[in-house]
Every structure is written in C-alpha cells, then in structure tokens.
Design a protein that fits this description.
Blueprint lengths: L3 E5 L2 E5 L8 E19 L5 E5 L3 E5 L5 E6 L9 E6 L4 E5 L4 E6 L7 E6 L6 E6 L5 E8 L2 E7 L7 E2 L12 E2 L8 E4 L2 E5 L1 E2 L3 E5 L7 E4 L9 E8 L5 E7 L10 E4 L7 E2 L11 E4 L8 E5 L2 E5 L7 E4 L5 E4 L5 E16 L2
Antiparallel strand pairs: 1-6, 2-3, 3-4, 3-30, 4-5, 5-6, 7-8, 8-9, 9-10, 11-12, 12-13, 13-14, 15-18, 16-17, 17-19, 19-20, 21-22, 22-23, 23-24, 25-26, 26-27, 27-28, 29-30
C-alpha cells in the first residue's frame, strides 16, 4: 500500500573550514530516519528528489524544511532504489536486485507507473540518466558477456535493452557499483559508462549507444571492491573518474584520474595526495571545468584546479552530491540524511 507522509527536518548547521580566499562552505543536514539514500536529483535551491531503501522516494520543495515521502511496493516487495532521473515532465526511479523495476511518476509521486521490468536473477542496475533531448540510459551488472544497458529515446516512456552483440565484452568479475547513481554520463550523443572489480574501464559511445569503444584506466583494479565508483564529464572532452578500494578507504593512490580527450586516455591526478576513497564527484557548474566537489564516507573534498590538488572541507560522510544549475549550492545524501551545501565567495 502506498503511503505519503511529511517529515519535518532536524537540521545540524555548521560552517566548514575555508579552503582558500575564494570559497566558504556551509552544510546543513536534515535527518530522515530509516532510509539510506544514494540517488538524488537537484532541481534548484528549493527543490530536490531522492530515492532510497525500503521502497522510499521523496522530495522537498521547501529548501529541506519538510519532505514528502512515498513508499512504492511491488506485491510484498519494497524495492531498493539507487537510480533516479527527473525530466521536465516526470520522475523515474530504478531498483537494483531482481526483479529490476523502473517506475515513472508525472504527478509528484502521487501515482507510479511501472514502465520497465527485468525479471532475471542476475539483474542488478547501478545508475540511470536522462538528457534534456529525451535520450536516457541505465546501466547494470553483466548478464551473459556484457554490461546490462537499457535506453529510452522518448524521455522515459519506453525502454529497450541493448543486445550484447552491440556492446563490448566484459572481463569475468568486471561490473559496476551502485554507489551514487554516477556510472552514466550523457552529453549530446555521447554516453560514458564506468566499471570496477577485476577491471576499471570506461565504455564510450558517440552515437547514443549504437556502437561502443572501451578504454583502460589507471584506477586500482583486480579486487571485488576496487575500481571506478563515480564519474562526471564537464563537457564532451573533459571528465573525471574516482573511486579506489572500498575495503581500504584511507588509501589515496590510484583512485582519481582525469581525461581531456573524451575518455580515450586517463591520467592519475593528485596520486598519493588529496582525497582517498570517494563515491561521488561533480564539477561545479560554471567553473569552466576547474572546480570539483567529491564526497564519500570519509568526508567532503574540494578542488579549484581541475582535480590536480584537493582540500578537505568537512568530515561529514555522504554518499552522493548533485549541484543546482547555478552552481551556488548542492544537495547531498547519505545514511539517514539529506544535506544542503552552500558555496559562497569570501
């Protein structure tokens, strides 16, 4: 049975340290009990959507002063959602383990329609994105010899799965991490997917998934919990990947790399320095690809030079981050909480 409730926020306000004479960082935390959240979408400074455990999906339109939370059930199952996408007309959430369930709502979560289901014991979807032109991609762990990739060309109304015949073959033990809904990037006709495990690679299509190339990266690989946990592209040429070893979260080598040629080649950056394991990284909008924020359970870090150097701005743990379009604030999420990050010039 669907239930809707309003949760009043309990906020913890603190001013993080000043990284340099250019930026101050302030984080407000809103406690939301009994939910772990790894999938969010930032609409503006007032509005954000999230999806998490126990079938829970919610939003705020009041800067976090209150949240409306809906619980989605499939028969007796309460899905775990780790992927979300919001378009001008609808909100989409995608569950992980089988059966993979992709829901759509056009009325702020009052009703949810099941638009795609994959009832395969190996189904495990990691991330989803839909671009403004209506093209969307969701990626999951391999079934047979390739990553599971479904696409939409009509803003999420219909989805179809790409055949393994059209995708690169994966190595045994190569998969993805459902860490922060950031394994997929779409810019124009370009799509990038990332992997971890026995290999840490970037899969790239220049034609909306019709053909693919796969590129090696220097990110740590070979273990079950090693590889790329998050990725982001500022434009069609410049991007960053981060992650590391989930079992060694204090290790800061082979865990961050950048590209300036659309993902063909990757170079380690701040190796042995800067942040260790991080599960979500984003370029700050309007920063010309120079400013980044990375979050994870070890805290929040900031770079003002395209990832070449980093400063830690908070010890507070979060799983994921998304910026609002003007780049002046971002929404965050973690275990039992939503966060709001405000960036101000000194």
């Amino acid at each position: 049975m669907k239930t809707i409730l309003t949760v009043l926020s309990v906020s913890l306000l603190f001013l993080s340290c000043t990284v340099n004479k250019e930026k101050n960082f302030q984080v407000t935390t809103f406690e939301i009990p009994d939910i772990s959240i790894r999938a969010i979408e930032a609409i503006d400074k007032n509005t954000m959507w999230f999806a998490g455990t126990n079938g829970q999906v919610g939003f705020t339109k009041t800067k976090g002063l209150s949240f409306e939370i809906d619980t989605i059930s499939y028969d007796t199952l309460k899905p775990e959602f780790r992927s979300i996408a919001v378009t001008d007309s609808a909100t989409f959430v995608l569950s992980i383990a089988s059966p993979a369930l992709l829901y759509k709502s056009t009325d702020d979560g009052k009703n949810w329609d099941l638009v795609y289901m994959e009832d395969n014991p190996s189904a495990f979807y990691n991330a989803m994105a839909i671009s403004k032109n209506g093209f969307g991609v969701a990626v999951g762990d391999p079934i047979d010899d390739c990553l599971s990739v479904i696409i939409t060309e009509n803003s999420g109304d219909n989805w179809k799965k790409i055949s393994c015949d059209s995708l690169p073959i994966v190595v045994n033990g190569e998969a993805g991490f459902a860490a922060s809904n950031s394994n997929v990037n779409i810019i124009g006709d370009n799509v990038w997917l990332v992997s971890g495990g026995t290999r840490a690679r970037v899969f790239h299509s220049e034609n909306k998934g019709e053909t693919w190339r796969v590129y090696n990266t220097p990110i740590v690989q070979g273990g079950q919990m090693t590889g790329i946990f998050t990725s982001h592209f500022y434009d069609s040429q410049n991007g960053i990947i981060m992650g590391g070893d989930w079992n060694q979260k204090d290790k800061n080598t082979e865990n961050k790399a950048i590209t300036s040629d659309g993902g063909r080649t990757w170079t380690l950056t701040a190796d042995g320095e800067g942040p260790s394991y991080r599960s979500s990284v984003r370029y700050i909008p309007g920063s010309k690809g120079k400013e980044l924020i990375a979050v994870g359970t070890p805290g929040i870090s900031y770079s003002k030079d395209g990832g070449m150097s980093w400063k830690k701005v908070s010890e507070e743990p979060f799983y994921t981050i998304r910026f609002v379009p003007d780049g002046k604030s971002a929404w965050l999420a973690g275990s039992g909480k939503i966060g709001k990050l405000e960036l101000t010039d000194q």
